[in-house]
């Protein structure tokens, strides 16, 4: 800067700003206090402390609170303690050293704000311009820039009478502890101690700083919702299941919403539940003691039951192990029987194969024998047929002879019918007929004699001999006699 027109000054922070911007940093608070004292004693009428005045100040702490470094130019010759930036323009006969540039030390530069990860700050200018910076980030504030201050309710229960100021807003994981009194359906006062987890979300972070006390905003809404829900429950119901109604009242669909502030309630935890009325608390405590005793006894019964079940399970496992062993033994025996059966089957199959082979051989032998027998039978049949044909031929020949003889006999009888009949008629004697019949029997006929000869021989020497002689001559033709 041109020392004739511009002067470098140091910004002096108030104690409140030091406490808010640099929490717990007593060194920064002492440094700015010394600057304020220096501003009261400065010889000029300027409202700010110049860099030269700060450099020439004799109030330098042992720890080096006010450093000699910074930006400036050595143009004065009247003081050996002059800093790098002059506060006055003085003409002198001595030589003025040229301006030099030195790196700023801890307190020589502008106020530096380091915003941690998960935190945000709002930077505000004198003209009212605002912007939100989200960590991790390091900010170098302009001379007219400051940080928006949040005033958060504190205490249990949370109240606006005791507030804590801060410029750093925790974006995620804000855990707000609170205590509230609720009245149940039968007008019993109960005290609830809660822990609500709050996050800041949204694309417009400027909404996060719309409420300077988001803790009070959230706790009031939670008080209202939880109180409304508690009035619908009895003290027994609230004691039996306190977490579910509280979570539903805070996190349920009917829970509070903070869309205009970018606030989201992530979780709520019930830390403690107590009854304000001592008599009711004593009754509830007695009931709870009885319930606890019953629950303990029930738990003991459950433990005994569990032990019995465990013993039974062990016995069952032992039985299953024994049964498994028996099944294993049975499996081994079954496999042994299967092997023996397979061996027996193989032997049987071998025997069957041998018997089959023998049967096939016997069938082959029987087939050969059958063939031989059939051949013998065929030969016998042919011989029998030949013999039968021979006998048939003989029979036919004999039949031919008999037929011829029969025909001859028939011819003789036919020829002898006339004279023989007459002779028999004439005789008229049954004895004669019997004699003739005996004489002309088939045996004598087939003996080669004709009827006439037979009859003639029978009646030879009788008075009928002449008659039968004539009959014989008339009846027997010449060719037959020949």
How does this model look, in words?
The chain is an alpha+beta fold. Helix content is 51%, strand content 16%. The chain is built from twelve helices and 13 strands. The strands form five sheets. Strands 4, 5, 7 and 10 form a four-stranded antiparallel beta sheet that branches. A three-stranded antiparallel beta sheet has the order 11-12-13. The C terminus is likely disordered.
Characteristic key phrases:
12 helices; rod-shaped; 51% helix
Can you give me a brief rundown of this structure?
The protein is an alpha+beta fold. The chain is built from 12 helices and 13 strands.
Please state the CA-atom Rg, rounded to the nearest Å: 77 Å
Amount of beta strand: 15-25%
- The rough form would be described as rod-shaped
Distance between the termini: 201 Å
Q: Could you spell the SSE succession in H and E letters?
A: EHHEHEEEEEEEEEEHHHEHHHHHH
Helix-and-strand structural type: alpha+beta
The helix content is 40-55%
Q: Give start-end ranges of low-pLDDT stretches.
A: 58-97, 478-482
Q: Could you tell me the number of beta strands?
A: 13
Mean pLDDT: 78
């Amino acid at each position: 800067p041109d020392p004739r027109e511009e002067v470098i000054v140091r910004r002096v922070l108030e104690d409140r700003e030091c406490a808010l911007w640099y929490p717990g940093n007593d060194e920064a608070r002492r440094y700015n206090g010394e600057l304020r004292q220096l501003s009261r004693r400065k010889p000029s009428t300027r409202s700010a402390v110049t860099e030269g005045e700060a450099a020439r100040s004799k109030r330098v702490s042992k720890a080096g609170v006010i450093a000699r470094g910074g930006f400036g130019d050595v143009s004065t010759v009247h003081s050996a303690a002059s800093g790098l930036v002059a506060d006055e323009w003085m003409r002198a006969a001595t030589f003025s050293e040229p301006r030099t540039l030195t790196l700023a030390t801890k307190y020589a530069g502008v106020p530096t704000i380091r915003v941690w990860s998960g935190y945000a700050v709002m930077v505000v200018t004198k003209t009212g311009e605002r912007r939100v910076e989200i960590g991790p980030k390091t900010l170098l504030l302009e001379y007219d820039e400051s940080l928006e201050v949040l005033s958060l309710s504190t205490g249990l229960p949370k109240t606006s009478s005791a507030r804590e100021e801060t410029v750093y807003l925790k974006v995620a994981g804000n855990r707000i502890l609170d205590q509230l009194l609720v009245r149940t359906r039968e007008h019993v006062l109960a005290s609830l101690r809660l822990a609500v987890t709050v996050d800041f979300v949204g694309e417009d972070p400027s909404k996060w700083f719309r409420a300077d006390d988001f803790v009070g905003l959230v706790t009031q809404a939670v008080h209202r919702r939880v109180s409304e829900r508690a009035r619908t429950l009895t003290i027994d119901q609230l004691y039996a299941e306190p977490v579910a109604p509280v979570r539903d009242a805070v996190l349920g669909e009917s829970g509070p919403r903070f869309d205009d502030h970018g606030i989201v309630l992530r979780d709520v935890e019930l830390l403690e539940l107590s009854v304000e009325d001592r008599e009711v608390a004593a009754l509830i405590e007695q009931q709870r003691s009885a319930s606890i005793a019953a629950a303990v006894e029930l738990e003991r019964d459950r433990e005994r039951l569990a032990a019995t079940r465990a013993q039974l399970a062990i016995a069952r496992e032992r039985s299953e192990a024994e049964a498994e062993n028996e099944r294993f033994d049975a499996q081994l025996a079954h496999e042994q029987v299967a092997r023996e059966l397979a061996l027996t089957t193989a032997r049987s199959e071998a025997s069957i194969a041998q018997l089959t082979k023998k049967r096939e051989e016997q069938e082959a032998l029987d087939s050969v024998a059958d063939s031989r027998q059939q051949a013998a039978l065929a030969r016998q049949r042919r011989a029998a047929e030949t013999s039968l044909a021979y006998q048939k031929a003989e029979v036919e020949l004999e039949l031919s002879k008999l037929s011829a003889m029969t025909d001859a006999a028939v011819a003789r009888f036919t020829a002898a019918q006339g004279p023989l009949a007459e002779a028999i008629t004439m005789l008229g004697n049954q004895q004669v007929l019997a004699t003739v019949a005996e004489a002309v029997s088939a045996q004598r006929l087939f003996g080669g004699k004709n009827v006439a000869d037979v009859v003639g021989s029978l009646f030879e020497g009788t008075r009928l001999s002449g008659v039968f002689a004539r009959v014989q001559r008339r009846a027997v033709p010449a060719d037959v006699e020949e």
